[in-house]
Specification:
351 residues; elongated; 5-stranded parallel β-sheet; 14 helices; 7-stranded parallel β-sheet
Amino acid sequence: MGNRPQVLIACSERVRHGYLPPEELTRLEQVADWAWFACEGGNIYQASEDAEAIAQLAKELAGVDALVVCHGAPRVNAAVLEASPQLRFIGELEGDRFATRIDLDAAWARGIRTVDTTNGSSYPVAEWALALTLIAMRNAGALFRRILARNTDGSTIQPMAGMLTGKRVGLIGGGHMGRRLMKLLRPFEVELWMHDPYLSQELAEALGFLLTSLDNVMSQCDAIVCVAPLTPQTKGMIGQRELELIPSGAVLVNVSRGPIFDSEALIERLKRGDIAAGFDVFDPEPIPADSEIIGLPNVFLTPHFSGRTGDEYPHFFRLMVDELERFFAGHQTYFDLTPRSQANRRGDQPG
């Protein structure tokens, strides 16, 4: 038993009982011993800065090989790492990849692997992005509104883009969600264009998509899907100028974050009625009851729910156990926090 890796999970009671499926803990037990450090403080985006909790975490980390943190955990700062010479792996379970619970520079200086599995919510969102694209291609929102108005005559076809198969789809953002969506789109034999300044040309060639400008995506694609993260660089990125580039007959989908779009300009563009849209997000949220977008017949709306699956547990910990299995077996992990990923989240210019 003494040679088995030791894993500490630092999180709140809500995370312990709501995020860690028993079957995944059993799977973890096949490769490591684990313990729970109960802690409260901070929120999904911010770590607790309580000095007593930080000192207690440092004490708990004696002899620990891997630390998993989530909501409630105190910040893993340089002093904590200095007191944890055996630590080789730190995993953030869900933190929107801003890594506020981890001093990344201090961890990297010590050669500690840093991993984030927030992308566990990206996979169901990618599915809903595909669904909204299909709905918008047929302008099904307009048809459903007619049915709600007791007009069930389907003989009059609404203006629509038609079938998705063989169309050109432009993705804004090529992170976990975008790459998952690419897989889901493959059976439709679409031509994939992508705008993401943080992706390499090598990845574009390997996965078979065209890396291009935002203007090209907005002006030359049949379907435009926003799956970009909200960062200082992307906030307000799509305004009146970009929206005017969308050709008549195209569809527009956003499952990322509402503030990436200028909401007033978005509504004005949609009011022209020559494009169809599907949105799971909007700015502000919840959508104001008197917002014009609710009444637009060419728009299908859902209330920022696409990350919810109805499953008893979210999928973050399953991915984390996958990563721990890889790491302890001597393999490369998939979801590393790196200087490049942090530059993306901060909105820095890509290196």
